[in-house]
């Protein structure tokens, strides 16, 4: 089985998010970029599923600055990597570029993370599915394979759905699908020589632009209530906050 | 050109997030002086369908096809896009629910539409531009996204827009589409839905526990507090990583982002990744024995104290309040 894992290069989860140029640019100064945590889960499951039987390709749409993250994915265990040399303008742009690659190089399974932790769109999996006329499942928490059929668990509000899907298909992985893998020394050494192909993007019209950013309004001072006076807290939640 | 709203149901009943999305779509239709058409797919009763009029839908398209009784992502997206085309709708709205996240991108591609996912406010339509505010960086910020295409798809974050009831009524008509065979390559085998628990993304009140609770055996009081308040249960990442609670309860940057009216954090210190997932809660209550816990900096109300002493007292106080109310 050949699996394609779509990966994003995102700010580390501990990043304090700030903006520059009158709140129109994300301030990357001092920000550490990492492999999107949900993509790590996709990659880990892809490696498990192909052990001794297939290959895992990772693909990223990004400029040369994303290569450390791509090498990290190779160190974790991907077989080879593709970088489409363009800024990821929006989810549609990214999905369109990756879809062109898949049309020329078909895969049995295409995984993304459930969302990237920067723009949180959950869009690329569905868009890829539509562009390739394949089934897509946006958020899965389990993925098992038997023959030419996969069984996945999809998260729904207050429960789950179990689905059977014919290959090939696209899915966005969430916690539960696999445990993220940490690269070992051998992986790190071999990642340097694994193939990383750089291809140029195709032209496509885009439909969205990020105009500016806002940060959440700061909250007022906390009102502390004595541990012995929980009735006071209940009263405040009822009369002042009006939430119970 | 009308606005089309996809009204998701769970087991034949519309959900709170659906009514929020209908109210939101109504407001967008008002901005554009146009009609609001709803589309429902599955087994939903006539009275339930016509109830959408109360939230501002003028017409409800009912798709009740045996093959489409349960959610099939690809086929549902085809039906909704088809309804948009047949009715010349140029704006399609849906809830950014788990199913909505699967549908919206497919519909957007079919309609060559820009997609604003996770909208938290009404679009701004000044001078021919169309800008939508959405969550970004997992709740640490918002992005203002301009949609530049003729067709637009917007998915609304649950709990971000208030339900508005009107005196309106809706006419219900059947909408039939030829389902194409290639849309049915993913099929549901089983649906497991716990009906006695409040679903976390939709909940008005969330009670969340952290490592300060010391172990899964201590969740009894957390569950009791949640039950009393009609709240959903949540937890921090270390708790779900340790297997004390299921991953589906993990709230934070790499879990679920929630925006309830009330978020009660018990024994959670408030790491930046956790705060990202709860920052759009309207009111935050923090109970922690460490007065220096970072969570107190973003809390509205706080109690510095041991959860094992404070929570039982809080339960007693709520019981007393309920008895007197």
What's the arrangement of secondary structure elements?
The complex is a heterodimer of chains A (244) and B (325).
Chain A lengths: L1 E5 L2 E3 L7 E2 L4 E2 L6 E3 L1 H14 L4 E8 L4 H10 L3 E6 L5 H14 L4 E5 L10 H9 L3 E11 L2 E8 L2 E8 L2 E5 L11 H7 L4 E4 L8 E7 L8 E2 L5 H11 L4
Parallel strand pairs in A: 1-6, 1-8, 6-7, 7-13, 8-12, 9-12
Antiparallel strand pairs in A: 2-5, 3-4, 9-10, 10-11
Helix pairs in contact in A: 2-5, 3-4
Chain B lengths: L2 E4 L2 E2 L2 E2 L1 H16 L4 E6 L4 H5 L8 E5 L9 H14 L4 E5 L2 H13 L3 E6 L11 E6 L4 E7 L4 E5 L14 E4 L11 E8 L11 E5 L10 H10 L2 E4 L1 H5 L20 E5 L5 H7 L4 E6 L12 E4 L2 H18 L1
Parallel strand pairs in B: 1-4, 1-6, 4-5, 5-11, 6-10, 7-10, 13-14, 13-15, 15-16, 16-17
Antiparallel strand pairs in B: 2-3, 8-9
Helix pairs in contact in B: 3-4, 5-8
- The total domain count of chain A is 1
Major protein interface? A-B, 83 and 103 residues
CATH class of the largest domain in chain B: Alpha Beta
Note the main sheet of chain A: 9 strands, mixed
Percentage of residues in helical conformation of chain A: 25-40%
CATH T-level fold name of the largest domain in chain B: Rossmann fold
What is the CATH class designation of chain A?
A: Alpha Beta
Report the uncertain regions of chain A.
none
Q: What oligomeric state is this?
A: heterodimer
Structural class assignment of chain B: alpha/beta
Strand content of chain B: 25-35%
Elements of chain A, N to C (H/E) = EEEEEHEHEHEHEEEEHEEEH
Brief characterization of the structure:
By secondary structure, chain A is an alpha/beta fold. Chain A has 6 helices and 15 strands.
């Amino acid at each position: 089985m050949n699996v394609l894992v779509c990966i994003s290069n995102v700010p580390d989860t501990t990043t304090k998010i700030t903006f520059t140029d009158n709140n129109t640019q994300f301030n990357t100064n001092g920000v550490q970029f990492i492999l999107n945590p949900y993509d790590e889960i996709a990659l880990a499951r892809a490696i498990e599923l192909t052990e001794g039987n297939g290959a895992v390709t990772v693909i990223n749409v990004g400029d040369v600055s994303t290569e450390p993250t791509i090498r990290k994915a190779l160190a974790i265990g991907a077989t080879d990597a593709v970088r489409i040399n363009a800024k990821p303008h929006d989810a549609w742009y990214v999905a369109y570029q990756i879809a062109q690659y898949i049309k020329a190089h078909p895969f049995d399974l295409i995984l993304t993370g459930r969302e990237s932790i920067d723009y949180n769109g959950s869009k690329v999996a569905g868009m890829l599915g539509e562009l390739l006329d394949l089934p897509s499942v946006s958020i899965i928490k389990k993925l098992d394979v038997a023959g030419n059929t996969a069984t996945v668990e999809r998260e729904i509000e207050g429960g789950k759905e179990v689905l059977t899907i014919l290959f090939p298909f696209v899915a966005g992985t969430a916690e539960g699908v696999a445990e993220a893998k940490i690269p070992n020394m051998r992986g790190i050494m071999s990642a340097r020589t694994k193939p990383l192909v750089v291809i140029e993007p195709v032209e496509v019209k885009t439909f969205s632009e990020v105009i500016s950013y806002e940060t959440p309004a700061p909250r007022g001072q906390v009102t502390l209530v004595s541990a012995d006076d929980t009735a006071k807290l209940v009263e405040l939640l009822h009369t002042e906050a009006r939430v119970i | 050109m009308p606005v089309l709203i996809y009204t998701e149901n769970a087991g034949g009943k519309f959900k709170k997030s659906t009514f929020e999305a209908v109210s939101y779509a109504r407001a967008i239709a008002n901005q554009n002086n146009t009609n609001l058409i709803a589309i429902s797919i599955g087994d939903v009763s006539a009275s339930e369908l016509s109830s959408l009029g109360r939230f501002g839908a003028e017409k409800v398209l009912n798709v009740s096809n045996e093959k489409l009784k349960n959610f099939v992502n690809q086929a549902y997206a085809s039906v909704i896009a088809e309804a948009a085309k047949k009715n010349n709708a140029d704006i399609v709205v849906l809830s950014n629910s788990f199913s909505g996240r699967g549908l919206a991108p497919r519909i957007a591609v079919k309609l060559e539409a820009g997609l604003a996912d996770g909208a938290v406010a009404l679009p701004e339509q000044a001078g021919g531009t169309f800008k939508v505010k959405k969550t970004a960086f997992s709740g640490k910020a918002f992005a203002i996204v301009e949609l530049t295409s003729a067709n637009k798809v917007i998915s609304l974050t649950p709990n971000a827009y208030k339900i508005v009831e009107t005196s309106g009524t809706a006419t219900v008509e059947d909408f039939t589409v030829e389902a194409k065979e290639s849309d049915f390559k993913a099929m549901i085998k089983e649906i497991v839905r716990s009906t006695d628990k409040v679903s976390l993304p939709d909940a008005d009140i969330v009670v969340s526990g952290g490592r300060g609770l010391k172990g899964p055996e201590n969740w009894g009081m957390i569950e009791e507090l949640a039950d009393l308040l009609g709240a959903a249960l949540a937890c921090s990442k270390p708790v779900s990583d340790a297997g004390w609670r299921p991953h589906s309860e993990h709230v934070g940057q790499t879990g679920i982002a929630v925006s309830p009216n009330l978020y009660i954090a018990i024994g959670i210190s408030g790491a930046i990744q956790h705060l990202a997932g709860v920052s759009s809660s309207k009111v935050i209550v923090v109970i922690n024995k460490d007065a220096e816990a970072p969570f107190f900096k973003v809390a509205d109300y706080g109690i510095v104290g041991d959860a094992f002493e404070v929570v039982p007292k809080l339960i007693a106080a709520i019981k007393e309040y309920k008895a007197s109310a």
